[in-house]
Amino acid sequence: MFQLQRYFLPAEDWKDQYVIIRGDDAHHITRVMRNRIDDQLICNHPDSESAICRITEIENGIVIAKIEKWLDEDVELPVDVTIAQGLPKGDKLDLVIQKGTELGARSFIPFKADRSVVKWDKKKEEKKLDRYRKIVKEASEQSHRTEIPLIHPSMNLVELIKESANYQVKIFAYEEEAKGTDYLSFSKVVKQFHESDRVLVCIGPEGGFSLDEVETLKENDFIPVRLGPRILRTETAPLYVLASISYHLEELRC
Amino acid sequence: MFQLQRYFLPAEDWKDQYVIIRGDDAHHITRVMRNRIDDQLICNHPDSESAICRITEIENGIVIAKIEKWLDEDVELPVDVTIAQGLPKGDKLDLVIQKGTELGARSFIPFKADRSVVKWDKKKEEKKLDRYRKIVKEASEQSHRTEIPLIHPSMNLVELIKESANYQVKIFAYEEEAKGTDYLSFSKVVKQFHESDRVLVCIGPEGGFSLDEVETLKENDFIPVRLGPRILRTETAPLYVLASISYHLEELRC
Q1: Residue B35 domain-assigned?
Q2: Which residues form the Ribosomal RNA small subunit methyltransferase E methyltransferase domain (chains A, B) (predicted)?
Q3: Is the per-residue pLDDT at B74 higher than 90?
Q4: Can you tell me the distance from the alpha carbon of A40 to that of A45, in angstroms, rounded to the nearest whole number?
Q5: pLDDT tier for residue B178 given thresholds of 50, 70 and 90
Q6: By CA distance, what is B191's nearest residue in A?
Q7: Rounded to the nearest 10 degrees, what angle do helices B122-142 and B92-102 cross at?
Q8: DSSP code of B181?
Q9: Within this chain, do residues A242 and A123 fall inside the same structural domain, yes or no?
Q10: Subunit contact A247:B247, Cβ cutoff 8 A
């Protein structure tokens, strides 16, 4: 609503006081937004810096804009959250990645879980990853993120456990926790976050985790958490996690 | 995952020690779940009571089951949250209603906002409301709710303001709050909730609220809140609200 459109530009297209905008972004500016010379937009540098720029030239499908004002934005979650999502059916992973980006996730890992019905071959995976990289870019622009989340190649459990060595906090959403009376509340974990912690959140596919997976995750220090007392669908669980982390660290600060 | 399927049955189909299951539910039991005599399921009474029942008879498309054990479930949000969602484009309202039900909303109001592009005529509305009532029933069963959320007929701003007299807390998600440095944190409002409060949450459509709407909402004691520092899409905002309320009241309890 009356807000400037945002574009993520590669480092090499920033020149002193100007930015050069090419390809799809230039097309979007001239054809979709119908911007003209003297219109303003926001450009994001890969180093998470952003600036208000004013268009000075439009020629041969290239837009040139002058940097007018560097912005001091602080819109990234204070912790670095990665969602490892058990491959779900249909286009649910699109939804998780789009909404997860709006809610502040820093990266996504498509996780080939025991009960994932969908199987990816190499060709399918490449197409999917391309698609997800477009979704995170668009969702980052729309939600005014200053960083575009990373899409990892898909991982099986062994690869995920290896990757998990890079994280300070590891949790998994375990619906058995929601059903019992003896459970670990998600807030107990969030309260122990430190600034800039890397947090890995593993979510099962439609059928949940297999017992083998639960055992392996626990052995590797993944903490099972409850996400409220209701049973959430696989694609709803990561949104609950991200909204709660945002609420706790950005709104509540307790 | 190895959990009993749940069915919401009308009060008149509960007879002493037995329940009678008809129509779509009976079809689901016999054809989709392929249940047989002696299989178990969970039946919910409209008074929010639920029981494990065992099938004793299947005949002429009717299933009869014996009540074996009344359950003591507590899965409803401690406050009564209504989402008034500005009519969004496409099938986004399906998503809000399905996910909102999983996340504990008690009712939904389709809100005809100034900037809603979609218009509903009477015939379209009836079809839509039927569809939403099916979605809330299925999502309630899937997420183990003990109450099915209510779908209100659509309302314009005047009707919404009139309806709002029935609520103790009224808020609206205002993206201008996310952009400024002087904003009301959502947690300030949640901290003031009392048990069983009725909370009305108004969300704008894709284009946000019009300035007229913002003024009218404020005049009628709707509090503008920020939902984290990122800009959320219209269909993501209610999920943030519900997840945060669940997190605060059910997981954090602070």
Answers
A1: yes
A2: 76-245
A3: no
A4: 16
A5: low
A6: A252
A7: 30
A8: S
A9: yes
A10: yes
Of A99, A142, A229, the CB nearest to B231: A142
Same domain, A134 and A228: yes
The domain boundary residue, chosen from B15, B39, B71: B71
Contacts of A142 in chain B (CB under 8 A): 231, 233
What is the percent of chain A where pLDDT is above 90?
A: 83
CATH number of the CATH domain containing B105: 3.40.1280.10
CB contact under 8 A, A187 and B99: no
* Chain-chain contact of A228 with B240 (C-beta, under 8 angstroms): no
Q: Is B152 found in the same domain as B51?
A: no
CATH at A28: 2.40.240.20
All residues of chain B having their beta carbon less than 8 Å from the beta carbon of residue A236 are 99, 102-103, 239
Are B102 and A230 an interchain contact pair (Cβ–Cβ within 8 Å)?
Answer: yes
Which pair of tokens denotes residue B95? Answer: 């998503």
Record: contact A1-B144, CB cut-off 8 A: no
- In angstroms, the CA A88 to CA A86 distance is 6
Contact criterion met (CB below 8 Å) for A146 and A75: yes
What ipTM did this prediction achieve? 0.85
Residues of the domain holding B47: 6-71
Of B198, B174, B168, the C-alpha closest to B186 is B174
Of B1, B99, B230, the CB nearest to A236: B99
A179-197: average pLDDT: 84
Q: Which residues of B touch A186 (CB under 8 A)?
A: 247, 251
Residue A1 falls within a domain, yes or no? no
